[in-house]
Amino acid sequence: MASNVLMMRVSVGLAVLLILSGCVRRAPEPLRPSPYPGRTPAPLVGGLIDRPVDGGTQGAVVRVGADLGRCLAELSAARVTFSPAQDRQNSAVCGLRQGGALGPDMGTVARMAPGDVQMTCQTALALSIWRRQSLEPAARQILGSDVVQIDHMGAYACRNVNNGVGSSRVSAHAQAAALDFAGVRLRDGRRITVTNDWNGDAPEAHFLRRIRDDACRIFGTTLSPDYNAVHFDHLHLEATDTRFCR
Q1: Most buried by CB count within 10 Å: which residue of 6, 9, 102, 194?
Q2: Looking at the predicted structure, is the pLDDT value of residue 217 above 90?
Q3: Torsion sign, CA atoms 116, 179, 137, 79
Q4: Are 113 and 154 spatial neighbours (Cβ–Cβ below 8 Å)?
Q5: How far apart are CA 58 and CA 21, in angstroms?
Q6: Per-position b or e across 46-85, b if 16+ CB within 10 A of its CB
């Protein structure tokens, strides 16, 4: 009898030791249902800048650009430096809303000159798409060299269209919603400008016309030397809900 009691005590002790040592498996916890059955997590925001340009690009720029949070998230996810600024109203028709300073694009080599240009977030988004999906690849394909610098004439300017000549309509520049592109500098030392290279059949002219045509599918309004004499030296790239290309 005493031996049976001893055996029972030994068995109980061994069971306790096995449990404490983790050798005995516990019953698995029941699976918890997903709070969103049939749905997968949303992808990281930022795909628009690295997406090939198509017929829906300009509309996507307008939709995303209208929401500052989404616009900033797109730029950040694509490693485009953009420093938001407080809204300001400089006059009845001039100012900056949902904007900031566009800095370096860490996903590319070329840098804007001058740098840290003030513009709306929507304009920064459109420019980032254009440079990655059009300007830089077109330079490699047509000119055989990488772009290292993008020259421009600025974004914000409190004035009417056509520099106020013959028009009382307020320019998109008055809200920092447009940038005037002047040309590029290539890694091999060449400088391509709208002023000197727009006309003719040289590769430089083909390059400029290609990026103008692509800009028409990204920006609401794109104006070139083909539009009027005021634009003889630049491409006017306007990120607004408009549809005009020339």
Answers
A1: 102
A2: yes
A3: positive
A4: no
A5: 63
A6: bebbeeebeeebbebbbebbeebebbbebbebbebbbeeb
Bridge partners of residue 112, in order along the sequence: 150
Question: Rounded to an integer, what distance in angstroms lies between the CA atom of residue 228 and that of residue 203?
Answer: 23
* pLDDT, tens digit, 9 for 90 and up, residues 97-118: 999 999 999 999 999 999 999 9
Q: For residue 172, give the nearest of 70, 232, 113, 94 by alpha carbon.
A: 94
The DSSP element (H or E) to which 120 belongs, if any, is strand 117-120
Task: Please write the tens of the pLDDT for every residue from 26-70.
Answer: 444 343 333 333 333 334 444 899 999 999 999 999 999 999 999
Map tokens 């949902």 to a residue: 98
Q: Which residues contact 76 (CB under 8 A, 6 or more apart)?
A: 46, 82
Q: Which residues pair with 96 in a beta bridge?
A: 88
- Within the chain, residue ranges assigned H as helices are 2-20, 57-65, 68-77, 121-130, 136-138, 194-197, 203-215
Please tell me whether the peptide bond between 28 and the residue prior to it is cis, using omega within 30 degrees of 0: no
CA–CA gap between residue 105 and residue 242 (Å, rounded): 26
CA atoms within 13 Å, Cβ hemisphere of 129: 32
Q: How far apart are CA 23 and CA 12, in angstroms?
A: 15
Confidence (pTM):
0.80
Most confident range, picked from 10-19, 34-43, 156-165, 191-200: 191-200
